[in-house]
Amino acid sequence: MSHNSLLAYVCGLAVVELLTASSWNLSWCAEETAAQSSTVLAAVDQRHSVSLDGEWHVIVDPYGNGLYDSNGKARNNGFARNLAQSDSKGPIEYNFAKSGTLRVPGDWNTQRESLMYYEGPLWYEKDFEYKRTPGKRVFLHVGAANYRAFLWVNGHAICEHEGGFTGFDCEITAALREGNNFAVIAIDSTRLADGVPTLKTDWWNYGGLTREVSLVEVPERFVDEFDLDLKRGTANEIEGWVHVVGAAAGTEVKVVLEKDGQRTSVTGRTDGDGRAQIHLEDGNLQLWSPEHPALYHVKLTAAEDTLEDEMGFRTIETRGTEILLNGRPIFLKGICVHAEAPYRTGRAYSEEDVETLLGWVHELGGNFVRLAHYPHSERMTRLADRLGILVWSEIPVYWAVHFEDPAVLAKAESQLSEMIRRDRDKASVILWSVANETPANPARTTFLKTLVGEVHRQDTSRLVTAALLVRTEGHTKIVDDPLGDVLDVLGTNEYIGWYEGTAADAEQTRWDIRYQKPLIMSEFGGGAKAGMHGDTATRWTEEFQANIYEHQLVMLNHIPQLRGMSPWLLMDFRSPLRLLPGIQDDYNRKGLISESGQKKKAFFVLQKAYKENTVGHTQQ
Ligand code: GCB
Predict the structure, then answer these.
(1) I need a surface site. Which of 231, 272, 427, 430 has the fewest CB within 10 A?
(2) Burial class (CB in 10 A: 0-12, 13-18, 19+), 357
(3) Which of 336, 500, 523, 590 to mutate to test the pocket of ligand 1 (most atoms within 8 A of CB)?
(4) Are 320 and 550 in contact (CB under 8 A)?
């Protein structure tokens, strides 16, 4: 093999330029991607867009041959070029047009049997037509891509993104052509020790373009972010800001609120950073609450841009051990939910998926969901807004991520900011959670305190929480995690009756909570295979699980500062940690409902408690 052809081979494909290379130099392979940073466009789902959902050509690339150079860096001269043999004198060893397709949105694991366990690079390609509109900027919007994504349009590197559960937007205006275009997205779902999450999670690592992909058009100057909230202590004052990209200082920003034919409006002016402060009073404001999920049509106009949204207005705060919604104490009757698709399995993404999941929450009598353990699709929080279901939203700082590594902190911070940017217009979201079940060591505490500080800096209108581990001494559960110091609301997970002791032990358990703050029992529960019956002492039966709930409810009513609960969890979900044949078969069975929609006995135990209000209290 000559140097040149060896070089071509090492580079993974032969391109014309390589054939003229005269010296052996691996840097020829490099042509690293010029990664630009992505952004998150507020209310992007409300903007004019062209969907790129549907079938995409895909290439499974297990060794990352078309993606990485010899240093493991993403490169531009691989499959991203989408070459045909006629474009090159050397061999082209891939062909999108002749490759099979997968549906977007959708994880790849549940679409092709051979990809069920696949974790690695996979290429997506789609041709699309585009007709330029003068004065418009265009972004490629990706609802979620698990875990790392590399994007090109017409062979031009657009951006890279890390984090499998937050949406992002990358500008492609300069890369677009009139007429035929193609987008190539490489996704690598390889789990990383220094990723967020890290290597081990109790959920399936569904890879791919798991949520919607679209082209979004905005004017030259446009609203990329805004924050409008009901001011605490008031029932009629909305305050916040609108940020306009490219706006000169003094640009007028108009905010119009409309509901049931009533309009209120106000104008502000941008400062040197493009941000206009907004203060609006509406004497007839209808507040958003679970009983009355009033949504306003909100219209923001700035320069050439108009952005419309549906928003509710409410306050959420704490007073001592109370959680106050619109100034009144509330008890959160909740349930944890994974983004697992009901009936068909795989990652949830569709309107039907979220309607089924939140429909079950309503049926349960709940007013609250903990969206575990990562931000769910925007459809979920939109529907929660419409249904009046309160939301805990979390980033996947799960178990032991590399807390000592500043690069991991940066990844967690970016997912946190992306989550906040996307959902700060949702009244349903009341709690941002920075972590789940993390070991209380100093490196962890410093890491998480930084995240809590970030939440407080970016969003002063909501509460910050985390699901903590608790210490056990005899029959006492002690909540003294140092992170409790900076949280607004404490979350605690415990599995009395499942991982520890018997169900009846719950009633003997005393809770010693060292912070005078509201507490949510953010997890408890046990496994049961739907349809398996026996006595309350036989593990995996519906009776065993229901019995855990019965005893837990007694214990919960003895915790004076309990202000909410979200047992683990609504529906069984796929997990590589759950291998017991005949019972688990790759599913965590702690759901109240099976993955095929069968309700277990425990569902009805909890439903009764929620509907008859026999659990939970406020100090009202
Ligand atoms: C937990 C985790 C959750 C697991 C659950 C379980 O504590 O937070 O992600 O799935 O326990 O089933 O063990």
Answers:
(1) 272
(2) buried
(3) 523
(4) no
CB 307 within 8 Å of CB 46: yes
Confidence band of 33 (pLDDT split at 50, 70, 90): low
Amino acid (one-letter) located at 538: T
Q: How far is the CA of 170 from the centre of ligand 1 (A)?
A: 34
Q: What is the pLDDT of residues 304-338, one digit of tens each?
A: 999 999 999 999 999 999 999 999 999 999 999 99
Q: How confident is the model at residue 37 (pLDDT cuts 50, 70, 90)?
A: confident
Q: How many CB atoms lie within 10 A of CB 374?
A: 26
pLDDT of residue 433: 98
Query: How many residues make up the chain in this entry?
Result: 620
Mean residue pLDDT of the chain comes to: 94
Q: Which tokens in the block code for residue 563?
A: 């202000």
Q: Find the 492 Cα to ligand 1 centroid distance in Å.
A: 12
Closest-lying ligand 1 atom to the alpha carbon of residue 373: 9
How far lies 452's CA from each of 138, 443, 462, in Å? 34, 14, 12
* CA 371 to centroid of ligand 1, rounded, Å: 13
384 C-alpha to ligand 1 centroid (Å): 24
**Best residue among 568, 571, 579 to mutate for probing ligand 1, ranked by most atoms within 8 Å of CB:** 568
* Structure-model confidence comparison of residues 428 and 27, the more confident one: 428
What is the per-residue pLDDT for 35?
A: 59
The ligand 1 site (C-beta within 6 Å) comprises 202, 373, 436-437, 493, 523, 568, 588, 590
Integer Cα distance of 82 and 85 in angstroms: 10
Q: What burial letters (b/e) apply to 47-86, b meaning 16+ CB within 10 Å? A: bebeebbeebbbbbbeebbbbbbeeeebbbbbbbbbbeee
Q: Range with the lowest mean pLDDT among 28-37, 271-280, 286-295, 549-558?
A: 28-37
What predicted TM-score, i.e. pTM, was given to this entire model?
A: 0.95
Rounded to a whole number of angstroms, the distance between the first and last alpha carbons of the chain is 82
